[in-house]
């Protein structure tokens, strides 16, 4: 049982952790920290958190579990704010979308990554943001990746693992660099594509109202383009090492597809579409497992 | 009231036209034509159609409304099969995804487009195909675009318009070339991107199981990559004039995004994401109208 759970960033993820922790009776008290006063007020009013602070150090004081759930660009500031009161008896973890950047940030601030800090990332989300988008069952059946270092305390890892499992998630461990490589492909690249396409077509729409004739396929394809711009700015910059080569590889894939279309290479184009459909079925089969 | 409705291609679209026409009592009899014997048998067994033929000319004989709902690559063959028995008293229309190619096909076969042929396209679909995927309400609240020519009989247009309206759709008219331009942007390009991405990541997944850590965002982004490969092969070839420049334009958009990420151009990247989110909201607002 956690006594005092401190959540830094009470948005979609942080708010959902709070709601689930409360519903599953995983802690006695939930302290929320948020730089956005309106968001913090809503979290308090709706009973998502018990106490609210704008100050990171005040919020984290006396917590035995601290979860950092902000966009990854804020970690330097947050680690610096935590440094003075770093709770060596507590467990600190995070829900940041990239893992190497978070670990590098901890190294910058602390010299080395504290052994009670467990880097983590729940593979769950939505295109909506803020505490208003949080739900009690966001992590139910979802995957969470922890990327502990060799120096990370095994008991701290165990406590974070149990926390996520208690909220219904399946917990995996992998190397931070591997996490960033996999997520760049399955999440970061699709987001960049969705943002770029929606932006390009938005400009066309201003000229000739094409959106009027877009339908359900377009709605689903572009759903992730409604995601929080700040969060995605941070991810793109934090994981650019993995994302950039994938963008260029995808540009090459498109060049190949365009060339097949131009040449009317029926068999190869058909094979490409069949392979894509097969690959997606493999993905769906895994998703349901 | 239609006496004998002939649907050529009893798949997702054709089957849904049959189901809706029956439910709304728009016709006395529904004749289905399909080259796929299994699909035709299912359509008969499930009562989606009353009579089934594999032969286009036999199926269309004595029909007063003929709807061609096959992939657009089949139109030459179908028009040729209809030529001998071309029903001048009937109205012939289609549900093909591209309109210039269908009109060019009619010109190739008939010399000029028959005045009782009304080119059309319902903006409705799903990633599933075949009569098993058809539903009675697929067109409810959806948009249908008709692209009649100057020589098209206004009364034929009127009858097709009424047919779609009776199935719950909103009917618009536009130039065939404009249809193809708009749909290339809102539908064809996203499909090419989804196929290309799923194909590329499918190859990566074979090497290191990345799909295991893909989630809801990826599921929705790639949904259209499960679409019928034959239908999309035909669309890509039929509308390559419009699709190819868009693929290349999108590759340039990606190059710009990559360059912003590489340079760490925070403000511009943030503005791109904000603009994209705003554009998608504009689209959503229209979709709900």
Automatic annotation (TrEMBL), chains A, B:
Source organism superkingdom: Bacteria
Residue span(s) of domain Prephenate/arogenate dehydrogenase: 3-289
GO molecular function, one term: prephenate dehydrogenase (NAD+) activity
Record Pfam families: PDH_C, PDH_N
EC top class named in words: oxidoreductase
Keywords per UniProt: Oxidoreductase
Extent of the signal sequence: none
Entry EC no(s): 1.3.1.12
Cited Gene3D superfamilies: 6-phosphogluconate dehydrogenase C-terminal like domain, NAD(P)-binding Rossmann-like Domain
PANTHER family according to UniProt: PREPHENATE DEHYDROGENASE, PREPHENATE DEHYDROGENASE [NADP(+)]
Record-given protein name: Prephenate dehydrogenase
């Amino acid at each position: 049982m956690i006594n005092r759970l401190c959540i830094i960033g009470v948005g979609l993820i942080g708010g959902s952790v709070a709601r689930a922790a409360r519903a599953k009776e995983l802690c006695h008290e939930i302290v929320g920290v948020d730089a956005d006063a309106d968001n913090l007020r809503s979290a308090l009013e709706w009973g998502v958190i018990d106490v609210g602070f704008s100050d990171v150090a005040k919020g984290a004081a006396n917590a035995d579990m601290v979860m950092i759930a902000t966009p990854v660009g804020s970690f330097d500031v947050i680690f610096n704010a935590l440094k003075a009161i770093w709770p060596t008896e507590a467990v600190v973890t995070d829900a940041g979308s990239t893992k190497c950047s978070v670990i590098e940030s901890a190294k910058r601030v602390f010299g080395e990554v504290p052994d009670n800090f467990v880097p983590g990332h729940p593979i769950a989300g939505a295109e909506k943001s803020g505490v208003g988008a949080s739900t009690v069952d966001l992590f139910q059946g979802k995957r969470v990746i922890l990327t502990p270092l060799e120096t990370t305390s095994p008991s701290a890892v165990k406590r974070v693992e149990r926390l996520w499992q208690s909220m219904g998630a399946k917990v995996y461990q992998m190397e931070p660099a591997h996490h960033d490589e996999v997520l760049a492909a399955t999440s970061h690249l699709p987001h960049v594509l969705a943002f770029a396409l929606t932006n390009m077509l938005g400009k066309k729409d201003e000229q000739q109202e094409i959106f009027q004739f877009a339908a359900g396929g377009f709605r689903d394809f572009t759903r992730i383009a409604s995601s929080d711009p700040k969060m995605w700015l941070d991810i793109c910059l934090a994981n650019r090492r993995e994302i950039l080569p994938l963008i260029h590889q995808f540009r090459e894939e498109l060049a190949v597809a365009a060339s097949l279309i131009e040449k009317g290479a029926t068999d190869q184009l058909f094979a490409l579409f069949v392979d894509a459909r097969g690959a997606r079925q493999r993905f769906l089969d895994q998703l349901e497992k």
